[in-house]
Specification:
CATH class of the largest domain: Mainly Beta
Strand content: 15-25%
CATH superfamily of the largest domain: SPRY domain
Order of helices and strands: EEHHHEEEEEEEEEEEEEEE
Shape: elongated
Radius of gyration: 40 Å
Number of helices: 3
Largest sheet: 7 strands, antiparallel
CATH topology of the largest domain: Jelly Rolls
Helix content: 25-40%
């Protein structure tokens, strides 16, 4: 009996169409529903476009532009800073003037005592008069402008930030319009046969991740696994077949990331490679955690979703052999993972439910049989 891929949406009917936008395999009914969803989203975009057009055509639109609001905010904040600095300076002046007035009062009393004493004794001469005149003039000047108080103004770049208006230019043109994507039928020549998607049929262009190349994490191991070659190699070193687990070092929450794996030694047992939520405990039962997604190599054809296997999911045929080079793509932005085999040129993908497998993700590898060995390239 021939096998067909189930519809990603309903998980009931056979998938016969592939959306080149989201790359989901859909049945006829879900294809129509999916198309209606896209039309609804397009209507919303058109509505937003009309609002923008109305705003552009409105009179005096520039007067209320958000850039003016930013300038007004800067002006208000700068004025408030100046007012605050002025009030603090006035308070300081009041305190200093009170102290200065007290000192002038003492000097004035001393001068009055000398004048009264000189007048009473009548023994003063011209030099005494000149000195007293000088002291009186000095007191008048100090009363008007205290010589001990100095106001300084100096530039302080960190106090009030200057504002400038500039333009940002780019050497590259950015086109807002691109040709629309459409739903394409499955490339299989016969709907009676199980369809297998090939790598060149997917339209995604995934750039290489800027993250440092992943490697195995020595602190995230369960069971008899040994790491070799600067933690790029994981090998099952147990004395009997048993479940093991090791995870990658990197955490993935955004962007698209590629990991290349070489299965240097691989028996067709119950090994699994894929992803798991970083917070999931490292233990024997983690393979059954709802946050575990991936693929099991071998004839059982198990794709792994939410901690359980689904035979033939997404056309997966388990055609993975020893020495195959696989590429695992973690597309956090679209919430999907993809697996490609360079030998067979086949590509498989699984949508990830963020509710069951929240970010951040980690690379997950489970080796079951003695001697199984996987290398991160």
């Amino acid at each position: 009996m021939s096998l067909k891929s189930l519809c990603v949406k309903c998980q009931k009917n056979n998938g016969i169409l592939i959306c080149s936008g989201c790359q989901y395999i859909l049945c006829r009914k879900c294809t129509n529903d999916h198309r209606l969803e896209l039309v609804t989203q397009l209507d919303h975009v058109v509505y937003e476009h009309d609002l923008i057009q109305q705003q552009l055509q409105a009179k005096d639109q520039n007067s209320y532009h958000t850039l003016f609001n930013q300038i007004n905010k800067w002006q208000t904040e700068s004025i408030n800073k100046i007012k605050q600095a002025g009030e603090e300076a006035r308070q300081s002046i009041r305190q200093l003037l009170d102290e200065h007035k007290e000192q002038l009062t003492k000097d004035l009393r001393r001068l009055i005592d000398e004048l009264r004493k000189g007048k009473k004794s009548e023994d003063f001469v011209e030099t005494d008069l000149d000195r007293w005149k000088h002291d009186v003039q000095k007191l008048k000047e100090e009363l008007q402008m205290p010589s001990s108080i100095i106001l300084e103004t100096k530039k302080s770049p960190s106090w009030i930030t200057m504002i400038k208006v500039n333009t940002k230019s780019s050497g590259q043109q950015q086109f807002l319009y691109q040709s629309p994507r459409v739903l394409l039928p499955s490339p299989s020549p016969s709907l009676g046969k199980r369809t297998v998607t090939r790598i060149d049929e997917f339209t995604t262009d995934l750039p290489t991740s800027r993250k440092q190349a992943d490697k195995f994490n020595a602190e995230k191991i369960y069971g008899p696994i040994e790491l070799q070659d600067e933690k790029k190699v994981a090998v099952h070193v147990g004395s009997a077949n048993c479940a093991t687990e090791v995870r990658g070092t990197n955490l993935y929450s955004t962007g698209k990331h590629r990991l290349q794996l070489k299965l240097e030694k691989m028996h067709h047992g119950y090994s699994l490679f894929g992803i798991v939520t970083e917070s999931t405990l490292v233990q024997e039962s983690s393979i059954s955690s709802k946050s575990t997604y991936g693929w099991v190599p071998g004839n059982n054809k198990q794709a792994w979703l939410k901690g359980a296997g689904t035979a033939g999911y997404g056309g997966y045929d388990g055609d993975i052999m020893e020495n195959d080079v696989l590429e695992l793509v973690l597309n956090c932005d679209k919430k999907i993972i993809q697996l490609s085999n360079k030998r067979t040129n086949k590509l498989y993908q699984i949508p990830v439910d963020i509710n069951s497998c929240p970010f951040p993700w980690q690379f997950y590898l489970s080796l079951y049989e003695i001697g199984d060995l996987v290398r991160i390239l």
